[in-house]
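Hey, can you fold this one?
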Amino acid sequence: MFGYVVIDKPNILIKDYNVYRAYYCGLCKAIGKRNGQLNRLTLNYDIVLLALLGHNYENRDPVFCEGRCFVHPVGKKLSYVKRNDILDRIADINVILGYYKLTDDVIDENKHRSVRSIMRPSYKKAAKRMKSFDEAVRRGYDRLREEEKKNSDISTLADCFGYILSACGDALTDKCDKNLRKFLFYIGRWIYVIDAYDDIKKDFKDKCFNPFLREIKETDDNFYNEAERRARELLYEDIAVATDCYNAMKIEVSEGPLSNIIYRGLKDRTEFVLKRRGEKWRKETRLKY
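Sure. Predicted structure:
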């Protein structure tokens, strides 16, 4: 997906960071075995959130193993969460979401066509295993493109992406409830808004669609002040609702890293991106060791 949902690393306990890293590495390994080694490069932080939520809703403690990383083959062995059915489902979710994101890029900007072709075989296998989820994501992106063609306001467009992410709940676990669906819906909205704000200068330069650039012929300080005000308003509204949903959940597995993301990480990333005022944040997709 996008890679904005991250921990607040300076303010996370070392033991919680190690657990978070183990989930990340476990997902990376599961994706490679489930969907092929090249798909490991599609992993980002947003997907790790699903792994944490999935183990909580299944009330299953992760099993930790030690092994080497294909990105960091030299050095000490790293702890990772042992592959299980939860990680396998998330691996499929990751491939399906990634494929539709690439399809959206091909349609909107005529880019990543070759990458999408490489991913297609893995996508087809994942879509066959998750037919309902695949259909939900397809409908979500169809609706998103329709609203973009109508030049709809950013809140309407964010709802479309919220719908896509909320569908992850039922694909993730049979125990999905209204709290999880609503939580993911507002996390999806938050991701859409922060990504759109992050892309302002790039999209203006490339003449690409961006909901913050509706009917904008030129950008100046007044424009960026208003865009920041509107983005801040939407982002913190979404964080507030997502946090309320999280507070209503029963969290018993890996609570430390999950709470760090919800209570600190979302706000920290919001402020980081807002302060850059459209200077595209170079999203990190791999953990640094």
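The chain has a mean pLDDT of 91. Let me know if you want another pass with a different chain boundary.
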